[in-house]
């Protein structure tokens, strides 16, 4: 008797709405960070954001009975969870907040579009069965031309800060951390997604705390606008959107979830220009087009599958 195939996830109108919300909120995160940085120092912003998010996620996890959802004989090692927290949130949030002092939110968001481009060659060497095709190589190469343009001296004339180049490199290092985290999580034994997210955020907060104390001393009381931005980052951008991400993956599948990658940099550029009056130099727009084009080429079977089914 033939094995029964599991049904493909159904892509509904609600799926499109949810993935649109994810793209918009995560794309606006870089703009909100700029606002929060007007009243909160960068390292403390990372610590507070992760602490708030971990507390909110702990509530969700508690509603699930603090279930780990793991095979008792195949539980992840605590150090692997701590490492996942470091590369998923602890180190990236420190670097991103520091870097955004010297670059625009549009630049920071565009940098994150490099994540899928970094994942493909990284998975080729680190994950069994993952191999780069000729199409993927072409797409990755095109995308990295865009990344090179971002780092170049003429990529952005917005801040004029002496450390702007270092800020650009910090943002691109964040993209590398996120790519490394995607490989790290794939290597962790199956675990309840809410539990994993909560543990990663809590460990990320513990990692950033000593840096905050050592580099910035005791935190001050932020002004109202920065405080509201901080709450938004912790509750909405980090905790709530991670729960919505899980809902999208479970209802429409991880392939459909990749559409978020294309929205985030676009929204970051658009909102940075409209809300923060950030400039839009041609080189930034060209870099964005190259990166998104490289993503589309390297992930063409995925993109085609979404729209054929959707």
What do you see in this structure?
- Helices cover about 75% and strands about 0% of the residues.
- With about 300 residues, it is mostly helical.
- The two termini are about 30 Å apart.
- The N terminus is likely disordered.
- It is a multi-pass membrane protein.
- Belongs to the EamA transporter family.
- This is Permease of the drug/metabolite transporter (DMT) superfamily.
- Given helix and strand content, the structural type is mainly alpha
Unreliable runs: 1-6
The tally of helices reads 13
Helices and strands, in order, run as HHHHHHHHHHHHH
Mean pLDDT: 82
**Tell me, what's the shape?**
globular
Count of the domains: 1
Major sheet: size, sense and barrel closure?
A: none
Spell out the key features of this protein.
310 residues; 0% strand; disordered N terminus; globular; single chain; EmrE-like; mainly alpha
Brief description of this entry?
InterPro entries: AA-Vitamin_Transporters (IPR050638), EamA_dom (IPR000620), EmrE-like (IPR037185). This protein is mostly helical.
Secondary-structure blueprint:
Blueprint: H1 13-36, H2 42-63, H3 78-99, H4 105-112, H5 115-126, H6 134-151, H7 164-187, H8 193-216, H9 224-252, H10 254-257, H11 259-276, H12 282-298, H13 300-309
């Amino acid at each position: 008797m033939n094995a029964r195939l599991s049904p493909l996830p159904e892509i509904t109108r609600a799926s499109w709405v949810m993935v649109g919300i994810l793209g918009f909120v995560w794309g606006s995160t870089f703009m909100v960070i700029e606002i929060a940085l007007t009243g909160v120092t960068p390292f403390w912003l990372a610590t507070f954001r992760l602490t708030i998010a971990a507390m909110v996620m702990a509530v969700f996890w508690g509603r699930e009975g603090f279930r780990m959802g793991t095979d008792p004989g195949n539980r992840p090692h605590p150090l692997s969870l701590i490492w996942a927290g470091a590369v998923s949130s602890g180190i990236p949030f420190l670097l991103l907040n520091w870097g955004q002092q010297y670059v625009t939110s549009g630049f920071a968001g565009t940098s994150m579009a490099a994540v899928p481009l970094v994942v493909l060659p990284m998975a080729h060497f680190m994950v069994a069965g993952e191999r780069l095709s000729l199409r993927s190589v072409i797409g990755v190469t095109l995308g990295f031309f865009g990344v090179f343009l971002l780092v170049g001296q003429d990529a952005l004339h917005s801040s004029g800060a002496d450390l702007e180049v270092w800020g650009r490199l910090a943002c691109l290092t964040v993209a590398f951390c996120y790519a490394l985290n995607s490989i790290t999580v794939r290597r962790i034994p199956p675990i309840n997604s809410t539990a994993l997210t909560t543990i990663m955020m809590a460990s990320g907060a513990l990692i950033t705390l000593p840096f905050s104390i050592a580099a910035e001393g005791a935190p001050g009381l932020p002004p109202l606008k920065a405080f509201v931005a901080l709450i938004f980052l912790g509750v909405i951008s980090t905790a709530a959107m991670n729960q919505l991400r899980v809902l999208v993956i479970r209802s429409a599948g991880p392939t459909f979830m990749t559409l978020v990658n294309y929205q985030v940099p676009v929204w970051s550029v658009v909102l940075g220009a409209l809300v923060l009056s950030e400039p839009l130099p041609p080189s930034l727009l060209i870099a964005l087009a190259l990166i998104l084009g490289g993503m589309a080429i390297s992930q063409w079977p995925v993109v085609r599958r979404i729209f054929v089914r959707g």
